[in-house]
Amino acid sequence: MASLLYVLTHSTEDPDRAVTGLAAAAAALRGGHDVALWLTGEGVRLGVQGVAETLHEPVPRSAASLLEALEEGAVPLYLERSSFERRQYEESAIRPGAQVATAEQLATLLADGRSAVTL
């Protein structure tokens, strides 16, 4: 079993890349791997309530349903703090179970043995 950190950098500006990243993370979770998501840049928007629901991809590649499956699998969802703050979101807007995280927390995740997969 691998310990993976999916780093997603896209959302509504490139929905295909965003959904592809979520689908890859969900597939890894179904495969029994330890999965976490790190959302940065435009990807941080996926951690805000209501944004994933605006991405329309052919079923079953719905961003909202993929995020729900990851949340049900207890996959940690980290929103990189500087990207989150640049977009002037309030912490009350984040998806349930998500957390705003710092670069130091990213370093800890990697130091603890997670392999980064950037999409």
Using brief descriptors, characterize the structure shown.
119 residues; alpha/beta; Hypothetical Protein Ychn, Chain: A; 5-stranded parallel sheet; 5 strands; globular
Give a nutshell description of this structure.
The protein has helices at residues 15-30, 63-72, 81-86, 103-111, and strands at residues 3-8, 34-39, 77-80, 98-101, 115-118. With 119 residues, it is of the alpha/beta class.
Please specify the SSE layout and strand pairing:
Layout (H helix, E strand, L loop, with lengths): L2 E6 L6 H16 L3 E6 L23 H10 L4 E4 H6 L11 E4 L1 H9 L3 E4 L1
Parallel strand pairs: 1-2, 1-5, 2-3, 3-4
Helix pairs in contact: 1-2
What this model shows, in words?
The chain is of the alpha/beta class and 119 residues long. The protein has a single domain, classed as DsrEFH-like (Hypothetical Protein Ychn, Chain: A, 3-Layer(aba) Sandwich). The protein is built from four helices and five strands, in the order E-H-E-H-E-H-E-H-E. It has helices at 15-30, 63-72, 81-86, 103-111; strands spanning 3-8, 34-39, 77-80, 98-101, 115-118. It has a five-stranded parallel sheet, sandwiched between helices. The chain is globular and about 35 Å long.
Shape: globular
CATH architecture: 3-Layer(aba) Sandwich
- CATH class equals Alpha Beta
Q: What is the fourth-level CATH superfamily?
A: DsrEFH-like
Please, how many domains? 1
Per DSSP, what share of the residues sits in E-state strands of 2 or more residues? 15-25%
Largest sheet: 5 strands, parallel
Oligomer: single chain
Tell how many strands the DSSP assignment holds.
5
Strand order of the largest sheet: 4-3-2-1-5
Distance between the termini: 21 Å
Q: Give average pLDDT, whole number.
A: 93
Q: Over all CA atoms, what is the radius of gyration?
A: 13 Å
Global structural class:
alpha/beta
Q: Could you name the ranges where pLDDT drops below 50 across 5 or more consecutive residues?
A: none
